[in-house]
Design brief:
With about 350 residues, this protein is an alpha+beta fold. The protein has one domain: Amidase signature (AS) domain (Amidase signature (AS) enzymes, Alpha-Beta Complex). It is built from eleven helices and eight strands. The radius of gyration is 19 Å and the shape is globular. The protein starts with about 40 loop residues before the first helix and ends with a helix. An eight-stranded mixed beta sheet has the order 1-3-2-7-8-6-4-5, sandwiched between helices. About 35% of the residues lie in helices and about 15% in strands.
């Protein structure tokens, strides 16, 4: 049953939720800035108190990016865990539906409710859905957290990097086993995810683009136009890496740890005006799109605020089909962090300062 519709990026093909057809979605902490996308309205509705939980889709980070920039929880389950039936495709190989909510426990309940096999979706898995709430409050003691040395920190805003590293350190101080790990395939996975997305998005729109290009918004038209630069060789290599990763190769990068930890979004939120600039360079999905390619579950949980007053998300990712470990790790941080504030017109800065005191 449809309870309500929320604003999003056109065809889910972008990270800003700037939409020329239905209106732009605004960040609840600063209406001049983007909420992230593509599921921007889903995150805003949760943070604004309009819904306890919402649904989004994640092809390159479209659940975790708005969760990060708006200050809520967003999880991308394992590829095939949740049915895609009824969803308009962006990329058949990368699309993941999932929930957004204010707390990790709520995200667990919602994930369990929507997970499971669906005869109308041939890629949905018939694996049993585990108990996602059992053990979720075990806390950080005994949790093994890997912090990648490669890729993650190379193109990250210094303030965001510092905030996320502080969050990881609080887990260590509370009893988690935190260690640096190698992530040698990260760069290859990130490139492959971009190639697969661009070709499959262009293929889905083949019947209407470029023939009806004038009906598309300028941002999406530009992205579909640029997809012509991706070769068949790169697409084939991307699919090869995808299949290899999902066969267990990507899980091998987690040997000795339960989850990987890193920033969800490495850049500060654009203004809405900046987001409308065609061709503006970005690496917003640098850390998120990797897990769309590997299919591994990943979550964003808020860990603080950047200098502009916009929330920062800690991303935690686990092995294929192990949403329980990802949710447990996110809940462990949530217990250490304490309640995360919601936007308050009269006391936003004061609330942020209290959170900073708890993490200091």
């Amino acid at each position: 049953m449809l309870l309500g519709k929320l604003g999003m990026h056109e065809f889910a093909y972008g990270i800003s939720s700037v939409n020329p057809h239905f209106g732009d979605v605004h960040n609840p902490w600063d209406p001049t800035r983007i909420p992230g996308g593509s599921s921007g309205g889903s995150a805003v509705a949760v943070v604004a108190g309009e819904a306890y939980g919402t649904l989004g889709s994640d092809t390159g980070g479209s659940i975790r990016i708005p969760a990060s920039l708006c200050g809520c929880v967003g999880i991308k389950p394992t590829y095939g865990r949740v049915s895609l039936s009824g969803a308009v495709p962006l990329s058949w190989s990368l699309d993941h539906p999932g929930p957004l909510s204010r707390t990790v426990r709520d995200a667990s309940v919602l994930t369990a409710a929507i997970a499971g096999h669906d005869d109308d979706d041939p890629v949905s898995s018939d694996r049993p859905v585990p108990d996602l709430l059992g053990g979720i409050d075990a806390g950080p003691r005994g949790l093994r957290v890997g912090v990648p040395r490669e890729w993650v920190w190379e193109e990250c805003d210094a303030a965001i990097a510092a905030m996320v590293r502080t969050a990881i350190e609080t887990l260590a101080l509370a009893g988690a086993d935190v260690r640096e790990v190698s992530w040698p395939r990260a760069a290859a996975y990130a490139r492959a995810a971009s190639d697969v997305l661009s070709i499959e998005a262009r293929a889905y729109h083949d019947g209407t683009y470029p023939g009806r290009e004038s009906e598309y918004g300028p941002l999406i038209a530009a992205r579909l136009r640029a997809a012509r630069d991706t070769s068949a060789d790169r697409y084939a290599e991307g699919l090869r890496l995808l299949r290899e990763a999902r066969s267990g190769v990507a899980d091998a990068d987690l040997v000795g740890v339960d989850v990987l930890a890193m920033p969800a979004v490495p850049w500060r939120a654009w203004t809405i005006a900046e987001a409308k600039e065609i061709g503006r360079p970005s690496e917003w999905t640098r850390n998120t799109r990797i897990f769309d390619l590997t299919g591994q579950p990943a979550i964003s949980v808020p860990c603080g605020f950047d200098p502009d007053g916009i929330p920062v998300g800690l991303q935690l990712a686990g092995r294929m089909w192990d949403e329980a470990a990802v949710l447990r790790a996110a809940r462990a941080f949530e217990l250490v962090r304490g309640p995360f504030p919601l936007p308050d017109r009269g006391g936003k800065r004061q609330q942020q300062e209290r959170l900073g005191d708890r993490l200091a």
